[in-house]
Design a protein that fits this description.
Number of strands: 16
Largest sheet: 5 strands, mixed
Strand order of the largest sheet: 7-6-8-15-9
Distance between the termini: 42 Å
Helix content: 25-40%
CATH architecture of the largest domain: 3-Layer(aba) Sandwich
Structural class: alpha+beta
Number of domains: 2
Length: about 450
């Protein structure tokens, strides 16, 4: 039996331009390993909203002409890196598998979601089971802090779930070990190892009332310097502290703002961005207006923008998947797993349940969806983010580099080492890690 995902074209609620939206496909190089980062847009929309908004996008995703792919180096880079590229009509194309007949199918799915996102996934699973009587889906929700340890244990014991929520920065490890199924095995026009459940973008979310009371205006692209200045002004006026991150994601963002790449700097023995990072770490201990938690702002992604939140763009690097859905290579039911993923990312029913909790869906309909004010903010921010098909995939050894960065940050905070010495030692040790990783991957 072949299952084809189809879409009915509804009467438009709001006219929106047609969108040529390639589906990201992750083809991961052999030398990739990383730890998760705290990771196809809809067309731009002009929506009049009071309490809510109706949004509609085209019912079908148009194909990406081959000449466009050939001319667009970013598209080609994306395909080379490994997120599946969609090539034709329909939404996800055909899922080919044999009719299981009366056999009951049990699918396990591992996820790190909690709160409202978990509840939305549970409702979607319940609905899917109600229309597929022979399928039982067993969700295994694991705390994000313990997720990768648990999944790695399952992989080592040969009991990976059929479907895995996957971070693009961990994907390479599982692909390299042959633990994930290439989607081309179950989809006619998709390949790669992870299907985006939604597209989002990094953001600084902040309490608008605080910013208005202080009279601050953020630039369209927030720099580290502008953030520090705003944090100082808010603290001086209100006593509220700004939250910040001291992880590898911040170091990568600093390098990006300097027009560089942290891994290139490490290989070249340069401490430019690392020195900025560790100086900022020292500032956190010296300046009372910065803290790891924060009272009025937080670094997050666009799916976490709330009703009372303002938001500032912190990178111009385009959209990223909120998360990916991958199929275990050892699954007994890969075709049925693909059918579930297909329904989850492309059906109108699933969209009505998941809404914009996971960002703008790469396939699903958003027509006739009445947006809450908070959802409207998310929609606007993500829709205004350029989709450049550029996903930076960190090199092998990235996880270990993240650990030593945290260790040196703690030493700087405690005053055991000065920022310049920490930057130099960090770059030296990280270079050794990359060299060892490259040797192991050969």
């Amino acid at each position: 039996m072949a299952v084809i995902v189809e879409a009915e074209a509804p009467e438009p609620a709001v006219e929106m331009p047609a969108v040529e939206m390639p589906v990201p496909e992750i083809h991961v190089p052999d030398d990739i390993e990383a730890e998760p980062m705290p990771l196809p847009p809809e067309p731009e929309a002009s929506i009049e909203v009071e309490e809510a908004a109706k949004v509609e996008v085209p019912s079908e995703v148009p194909p990406v002409p081959e000449d466009i792919v050939e001319e667009d180096s970013a598209l080609k880079e994306m395909a080379d890196d490994g997120i599946a590229v969609f090539d034709g009509s329909g939404l996800l194309g055909t899922v080919s598998y044999s009719d299981p007949g009366p056999e009951r199918v049990e699918l396990r799915i591992s996820l790190w979601e909690s709160g409202e996102k978990r509840e939305a996934i549970e409702r979607a699973i319940e609905r899917y089971e109600s229309i597929n009587g022979n399928v039982d889906i067993i969700p295994e929700f694991i705390e994000k802090s313990a997720y990768w340890r648990n999944v790695s244990t399952d992989a080592a014991s040969g009991r990976l779930a059929d479907v895995l929520e996957m971070d693009r920065r961990y994907l390479g490890q599982f692909v390299e070990r042959g633990q994930l199924l290439d989607l081309s095995d179950v989809f006619d026009r998709l390949s790669g190892y992870g299907m985006p459940i939604g597209m989002t973008a990094p953001v600084l979310a902040y309490d608008e009332s605080v910013i208005e009371s202080v009279g601050i205006e953020f630039p369209s692209l927030l720099s580290i310097e502008a953030f520090i200045d705003a944090a100082r002004a808010v603290y001086d006026s209100t006593g509220l502290k700004a939250g910040t991150s001291l992880g590898l994601d911040l170091l990568e963002a600093i390098a990006f703002h300097e027009g560089s790449d942290i891994y290139t700097e490490i290989k070249e023995g340069r401490t430019d961005s690392s020195a900025v990072f560790f100086n900022l770490v020292e500032d956190i201990s010296a300046y009372p207006f910065l803290s790891s938690a924060g009272d009025w702002c937080r670094f997050t992604d666009a799916t976490e923008i709330g009703e009372g939140d303002g938001y500032a763009r912190i990178t111009n690097d385009g959209l990223i998947p909120y998360a990916l859905l991958s199929i275990s290579a050892s699954s007994r039911y890969p075709e049925e797993a693909a059918e579930f993923i297909s329904w989850l990312v492309s059906s109108k029913e699933a969209q009505s349940i998941l809404r914009l909790d996971f960002g703008i869906p790469p396939f699903r309909h958003v027509d006739d969806l009445v947006l809450t004010p908070a959802e409207k903010r998310r929609f606007d921010f993500i829709s205004d983010t350029e989709y450049r098909q550029s996903l930076s995939v960190p090199p092998m050894g990235n996880a270990e580099i993240g650990r030593i960065l945290s260790d040196y940050a703690a030493d700087v905070l405690s005053g055991d080492i000065d920022p310049s010495a920490a930057a130099a030692l960090f770059v030296d040790e990280s270079d050794d890690i990359l060299l060892r990783a490259e040797g192991a991957g050969m």
